[in-house]
Amino acid sequence: MKRCTGTHLRVLLAGVTLAMGPAPLVQASCGAVSCFVVIGSQQQVPQKGLLTVNGIFNYTPSEAPPGEGGSIPFANQGNKQLILANLNVNQIRTLVRTYTLDMNYGLTDRLGLQVTIPYKFVHADAQLGLGTSAPYADRGIGDIRVTMKYNVLPTLRSMVVFGLGVDIPTGDYRQTGSTGQLAESTLQIGRGNVGVVPSLYQSYEIIPHRLNQFALANYRHTYRNPDGYQFGDELNLSLGFNIVPFESTPWLVLTQQVNYRWVQQDSMEAALYAFDPVLSRTILLDGNIIDRKVPTTGSTYLAYSPGILLNLWGYASAYFIAQIPVARDFNGNLEQQLSFVGGITKTFNVPTPF
Predict the structure, then answer these.
(1) Is 94 a domain residue?
(2) Domain for residue 354, yes or no?
(3) Quick count: other Cβ atoms within 10 Å of Cβ 63?
(4) Which of 71, 58, 48 shows the shortest CA–CA distance to 336?
(5) What span, in angstroms and rounded, lies between the C-alpha atoms of 136 and 294?
(6) β-strand pairing of 195-207 with 133-141
(7) Residue 70 CB neighbours (<10 A)
(8) What is the mean pLDDT of residues 282-311?
(9) Contact predicate 24/286, CB 8 Å
């Protein structure tokens, strides 16, 4: 195998959301979450004229907590109804597979432009209004994120990169389920409105060409969509290191990181109902369509994420990272399970037009 040069090695090291009437058939509030790890080639600013392309695959399953279930509400944003319920949800599950094209371009040696295009596959066994589960599936381009980044502390051994991203609502948020009604917002491909995502990335080579430390913090705020649904703010914090374990194998890098995510409760403009599974009817509790918190949304999640990075004969680099839950509180909703991220990074020389 071709020996990794100092430049290739630095790239590898850095690469590392009381009236009674007929019951509507609506999906239960079983949100889809995403696996999140630090891939340094996404966060750094490439040198002027360099285009870094990442092809990333995320596999993120979610299931009901073992031995628990029930009390997950129906969030029907189409009819502006929030319906409290107490149904067995142990058979509800969600699987999100995301293929992401991430392009990172150096406008100058300190200023970069990043465009992230996700393509999502969502599969779920969704709880319906009559207490039965039914399959649900959707796929398509999600919300595209455009980020401007500035390296405020460029040195040979360290960098501090500030980023400001904007989520463009390109993803579909009007997909219907098998009942013909809108699937709940958390199962949609897109969020339906603009989001703002500031971020801060830091890395430092503790031992040049052998040991690299990194940290990442970002925060997402998404505005209320036309259906009156607003996804809760999200905070992600990550800390880790990359190490070349053997001097004789500079093409092999091990990555270890700890990831923490806090998500605020969602809210929606809706009237409040209660669902009676015996009568299969809803009972109106409050007919005022006002902003209400969606119960069982919001979560905290702590994960340990080990992985490997490989230099593919100096042509590109590949990585595979597992995200293992350590502590999690999904507020009675579906919990993110063992997840995986894999991908390939390739750099191209594309002269700037300036």
Answers:
(1) yes
(2) no
(3) 18
(4) 58
(5) 21
(6) unpaired
(7) 12
(8) 94
(9) no
12, 4 contact by CB (below 8 A): yes
Round to whole Å and give the CA distance between 214 and 259: 12
Cβ atoms of 179 and 26 closer than 8 Å: yes
Task: List b or e across 277-305, with b for residues whose CB sees 16 or more CB atoms inside 10 angstroms.
Answer: eeeebbbeeeeeeeebebbbbbbebebeb
Is residue 29 scored above 80 in pLDDT? no
CA distance 243 to 220: 30
CB-based contacts of 207, cutoff 8 Å, min separation 6: none
Give DSSP secondary structure letters for 158-218.
EEEEEEEEEEE--S----B-TTSSBPPGGGSSS-SS-EEEEEEEEEEEEETTTEEEEEEEE
How far is residue 140 from each of residues 82, 98, 127, 187, 273, measured CA to CA in Å? 27, 10, 23, 12, 32
**Quick one: CA dihedral 116, 119, 121, 126, positive or negative?**
positive
Within a domain: residue 338? Answer: yes
Q: How far apart are CA 126 and CA 137, in angstroms?
A: 10
Between residues 24 and 148, the one the model is more confident about: 148
Q: Which domain holds residue 50?
A: 6-17+19-349
Q: Is the pLDDT at 259 greater than 90, yes or no?
A: yes
pLDDT of residue 295: 87
Q: What is the DSSP letter of 131?
A: S
178-202: average pLDDT: 90
Please tell me the distance from the alpha carbon of residue 24 to that of residue 317, in angstroms, as a whole number: 50
Q: What is the total count of domains within the chain?
A: 1
User: Any idea how long the chain is?
Assistant: 354
- What is the domain-level CATH number for residue 101? 2.40.160.40
Give the residue, 66 or 294, on which the prediction is more confident: 294
The token duo for 110 is 């300190």
Q: Tokens for 179?
A: 């009942």
Reported pTM: 0.88
pLDDT-above-70 percentage for the chain: 84
Other CB atoms within a 10 A radius of the CB of residue 264 amount to 16
Q: Domain for residue 252, yes or no?
A: yes
